[in-house]
Amino acid sequence: MATSSRSLAVYSLVTILVTIAFSLQPRLALPSPGLVDDPQVGQIVERVVCKNNPDQSYALYIPTNYSPARKWALLAAFDPGARGMIPVERFKEAAERYGYIVCGSNNSRNGPLQPSAEAAKAMLSDIAARFSIDDKRVYLTGFSGGARAATAIAVWLKEQIAGVIGCGAGFAVGIEPSSSLSFIFYGTVGNEDFNYPELRQLDRKLQDAGVTHRIDVFDGGHSWAPANICLRAIEWIELQAMKSGRRTRDDSFIDRLFKSALDSAGGHESAGRALESYVGYLEIAADFKGLKDIGEAEKKAASLRDSKAVKQELRKAQDQEKEEIRRGTELFGLRARLMSPAVSAALSEASGQGSPERNAQSPGLTSEAEARQVAFTDLKGKLAELKRRSEAKENTPDRALARRVLNQYSAASFEQSMMLIQAKKYDLAASSLVTDTELMPDNWRVLYGLACAYSLKGDRRRAIEALEKAVQKGFANAGELERNAQLDPIRDDPAFKSIVERLKQKK
User: Fold this and answer.
1) Residue in 137, 127, 136 with CA at minimum distance from that of residue 36
2) DSSP state of 489
3) SS3 of 101, please?
4) Are residues 434 and 498 in the same domain?
5) What is the secondary structure of 274-289 as a DSSP string?
6) Measuring CA to CA, how many Å separate 197 from each of 208, 216, 334, 357, 400?
7) Which of 147, 299, 300, 385 has the greatest number of beta carbons closer than 10 A?
8) What is the residue range of 472's domain?
């Protein structure tokens, strides 16, 4: 009987893969049903090669009590840098506690969705062929571009994906929350993440659309959620699965989470954190409806909603959001004025936007060069001010805002330079990145990008110098150096090899 039910589970999950195959090219080769003779349980496996596609691999965690005699929930993860180990490590504790198989693609990438979609096909197909999966409890997660890929794949698969855990980003471009959305959504974001405003706006849109969701904010920047937040996400998903009938109701589990949520909301209220308490009671009412008596939580939420303290905090949050938008718009406006006509034209061509409008020239200036110098001085001063505010010792809303704006500017400017590299405009990319190193001398990402541009340009000396500076400022990923094809022109340089070995020894 185990083999018979196992076959049904495989072919049921294969319907998911067929859906992807019709959406994307090339077509998917369907897996043959089969069990793993000796699965490595209770430990993270860094690299499992897909049987039907050796170019694809994934990291994997199987709970210690795994048995093919029952069906298991699946969480498939997409990292924007093809680092499958990171999400598997973050979700390991939750997977062990609640019986999830977790796999993280080693091929998913930021940028176009195609690589992540191909990774999803290969990874899900391989998992379906190896393990006993509960088709009603297949979930996706991703960080940054991986989160957007996860939502896109969930939409393509219609009702085959039960939920998405999006870390550090919201939905893919073109996907808007609506009442027809077929999956639940748990978003996580750091309070210093440049995508924080996006997740706050998504929270409101999902609420208006009536989509079951939660947005969880933690102290930190643009990254995968820490393990304790990942555990919370899985617990929330388990609760929703009980509400929807996707899994058996567990009253002891429900009671434990209900008490913990009430204690948290009550603690915020006692400490005078009115807004946090209000949000806590709202979440209790939404999460436990149909599972527990939520009348008291609803009364508490209604009372706090009308309080002066909550209204003041909500106004502060709205004002801060407006301030953040204003700051970002100001910085990007100065950056646009700073760009040379050649860089502006190349970026417009790379993004398919056509010919750019000519940068406005400030009154009284005699040349574009002078106008760019004024913009540079102004931009450098504003970035320095934000950096000063971002280095405050206390974790205040102002510090978090400054860090978000700086991170947003840094990420966007770096992305523009990468667009120039992808368009093979290496001279322009290097020129743009040199300017960015003058504006942000402590930013290792800019220096690393400059090393890539110089490498592709054929300037080995400057490439090594930029890479050395990037390491001095915090770059520490030896694996990235070994994988990045943009550094192939300097790979045989003794200085490059020395940098790689030093970084490996620091691990």
Assistant:
1) 127
2) G
3) strand
4) no
5) HHHHHHHHHHHHHHSB
6) 17, 13, 21, 28, 12
7) 147
8) 454-507
Instruction: Please count the other Cβ atoms lying within 10 Å of the Cβ belonging to residue 198.
Output: 17
- Residue by residue, what is the 3-state secondary structure of 354-393? CCCCCCCCCCCCCCHHHHHHHHHHHHHHHHHHHHHHHCCC
Selection from 103, 108, 97 nearest residue 129 by Cα: 103
Integer CA distances (angstroms), 374 to 70, 365, 395, in order: 67, 9, 33
Beta bridge partners of 61: 44, 102
Determine which helix (DSSP H) or strand (DSSP E) holds 323, and give its type and residue range.
helix 308-338
Distances (CA, A) of 167 to 146, 157, 464, 489: 8, 20, 34, 34
Residue 296 covered by a domain: no
Tokens representing 212 are: 């079951």
Asked if residue 201 and residue 336 are part of one domain, the reply reads: no
The span from the CA of 212 to the CA of 162, in Å, is: 11
Task: Note whether 431 and 466 are same-domain residues.
Answer: no
Is 306 a member of any domain? no
Closest by alpha carbon to 256, among 276, 282, 235, 227? 235
Q: What's the domain count of the chain? A: 3
What does the pLDDT read at residue 26?
37
> Alpha carbon of 362 to those of 29, 326, 331, 371: distances in Å?
60, 20, 16, 6
Pick from 105, 143, 149, 120: nearest CA to 226: 143
How far apart, in whole angstroms, are the C-alpha atoms of residue 146 and residue 168? Answer: 9
At 180, list the tokens: 């027809």
207 within a domain of the structure (yes/no): yes
Q: Reduced to 3 states, what is the DSSP secondary structure of residue 13? A: helix
Question: Among 129, 150, 178, which Cα is nearest to 78's?
Answer: 150
Tell whether 409 and 348 lie within a shared domain.
yes
Query: pLDDT of 137-196, one tens digit each?
Result: 999 999 999 999 999 999 988 889 999 999 999 999 889 899 989 999 999 999 999 999
Quick one: how many helices (H) and strands (E) in the chain?
A: 18, 8
Least confident of 4-18, 433-447, 484-498: 4-18
CATH of the domain at 114: 3.40.50.1820
- Same domain for 214 and 327, yes or no, is no
Residues 379 and 348 in one domain: yes
Pair of tokens at residue 301: 């939420």
pTM of the prediction? Answer: 0.81
Residues 327, 220 within the same domain: no
